[in-house]
Amino acid sequence: xxxxxxxxxxxxxxxxxxxxxxxxxxxxxxxxxxxxxxxxxxxxxxxxxxxxxxxxxxxxxxxxxxxxxxxxxxxxxxxxxxxxxxxxxxxxxxxxxxxxxxxxxxxxxxxxxxxxxxxxxxxxxxxxxxxxxxxxxxxxxxxxxxxxxxxxxxxxxxxxxxxxxxxxxxxxxxxxxxxxxxxxxxxxxxxxxxxxxxxxxxxxxxxxxxxxxxxxxxxxxxxxxxxxxxxxxxxxxxxxxxxxxxxxxxxxxxxxxxxxxxxxxxxxxxxxxxxxxxxxxxxxxxxxxxxxxxxxxxxxxxxxxxxxxxxxxxxxxxxxxxxxxxxxxxxxxxxxxxxxxxxxxxxxxxxxxxxxxxxxxxxxxxxxxxxxxxxxxxxxxxxxxxxxxxxxxxxxxxxxxxxxxxxxxxxxxxxxxxxxxxxxxxxxxxxxxxxxxxxxxxxxxxxxxxxxxxxxxxxxxxxxxxxxxxxxxxxxxxxxxxxxxxxxxxxxxxxxxx
Length: 498
Description:
By secondary structure, the chain is an alpha/beta fold. Helices cover 44% and strands 22% of the residues. Strand 14 (440-444), helix 14 and strand 15 form a beta-alpha-beta unit. Helix 2 (81-87) packs across helix 4 and helix 11 (394-406) packs across helix 13 (422-435). The chain is flat, with a radius of gyration of 31 Å.
């Protein structure tokens, strides 16, 4: 039975701080999800397991040792030998994989024009055809629509080796995995269950930590008061003793005076010892609190004072949909009202982005009343929104930065940088729209470039946002949580469903 074992593994890049410290894992057959924030080390962990990176300490052991693990990285480049071998396969395994993933060998002739999602299926299919004992996938569902994700999950569910998958796709993880590795702040923990089950477990632990934090804060306040009281008592006794010494005769050395002096010294020693003990306890609690990371909660309080749209009908579009010279739909009719929460869905190429863009382009709303977030932000648009933020009045800027912080971005770092990351730029754009009280958000794949913790925070923010929302996303869980109605665009027709 194949397995992979990590024993006390630590890793760092050159002289930097440890990415991981003292990681031990034992994994058997089945799929394990690997989750965590961008930059936490998920991809690094996969590369350590494959041997591409050598641990600073500890070791990795695979059973059996050969053949080695197969890693499917995020990016898919040129057609390689494994892909061509799968296309030429005549054996049962190869033909089965081609069928399961709906791959046609003749399509390789158009590799350069293939979508990233199509290339990804070929990459994973070629990996499965090797029948490895250990298969590692890094973001396999990027660029895949819901149908392609379902096809991939079904094919991967038949794999019988040790599988590890890095993903921000909750639906995919919940469908495929039975265990979850959480990578956070240099710690790597293995939890039983798929993502939903594992998350419930670690959130229960974190609630316990939150309760402990509250108790520690209360203890800290009590100890600080006790230290202050003891300090006042000690100072009062010291002042009283000094007064007594001044009042005594210079040569007063009788037994009664010496006894009083001894009592004072003993009392002062006891008080000092009590003070040191209490202060040490207060310091220990302060250290415990210093290691506790508070999460910025998101809720409707962030939108206090939001002014609802002063008109019922916000957006309307009626006419043909064209992507350049290509006619997508002869006629489409769509309207958005102030309380609408709409999931615009459909297969890749159906015209979802085109319709969202048409709604924005024909809108009569002002820039402050409408936020349109495209799939990708240009460098010029990122510079514009960053300058807009810096030029805002302090109260308005404060509302936006509160949202930015709630979405997991350090406001100080954002204000100091001239080039935010793609994920930071998307969060800032959405925070600007929500923070200035836009009546409607048009969001095209808002979770692009976001890690799983950021997706969950954005989900909470949009649930609390009181305006209208129309979003395009392949993340079914995100859409279900944030919308109440569906527009299905398929075959040149738009169908509305409640």
